[in-house]
Design goal:
Layout (H helix, E strand, L loop, with lengths): L5 H29 L3 H4 L14 H9 L2 H32 L5 H10 L5 H14 L6 H5 L6 H12 L3 H9 L4 H12 L1 H16 L3 H6 L8 H6 L9 H33 L4
Helix pairs in contact: 1-14, 3-14, 4-8, 4-11, 8-11, 11-14
Amino acid sequence: MKKPSLVVRLIVYALLIITMILINLPFFWMVITAFKNESDVFSFPPKFYPTILDLRNFVSAFKVIPLGRYLFNTLFVSLCVTMIQLVFNVLAAYGLSRFSFKGREVIFMILVGTLMIPMQVILVPLYIIVRNLKILNTYWALIVPFMSSAFGVFLLRQFFMSIPKELEDAAKIDGCGRLRILWSIILPLSKPALWTMALYTFLAQWNSYMWPLVSINNDRLQLIQVGISKFASTWETQWTYQMAASTIAVIPIIIFFFFVQKQFIEGISISGTKG
């Protein structure tokens, strides 16, 4: 294959750099706004760096709203949902990938089809179900509706299908049951997919806004995204406080991603190539 010329490569690199800057510009602007004072936020021409490195916005963000409480609630709910989904999604994905029964493909197609249904469509039915279960305004209202996900089952099923069945056949000859095979063979080989699903689930719960807004009226149980929105009102938005709180809110996600980035990339590449 002919190697691209130097000019073509320079153009490609330039486009990649411009794309990277455009993608990261909102994040960069959020961080520097968190360190600015009010007068610098809307100055013209815009300042791409704060006049002074002002940390008072971060302190004030904790004073104006119970940011620490929101962070704890969000971390607790996100971890609970992630761990519960790992259990249920693994069992469902293993059944759909290894058990042969009538209607398996139909069930899987229906499951994948639910990925096309937006959250807004099921919001009211979900609210009625949670209300009838009498768990509104509790942590259960934030956890129970998300104990399993179609995307997680889909991702894990695709990965499980890439594992040779000969390994299971050898384990059966040695006397292993289904659960032992799942625990000792399938799960150790599926760490990239499990970490990928865990990251997606944790990120989705961490950024959840609409459902907590609808299902939780108790401020002590509210999550971080709804809490951050309280810096904006009809008449005024406290941009520096809001950006400071937003900067704090993304730190756990970045830390989590750095720990699992290798498994995440590996899981995406393998699961995405298996049918």
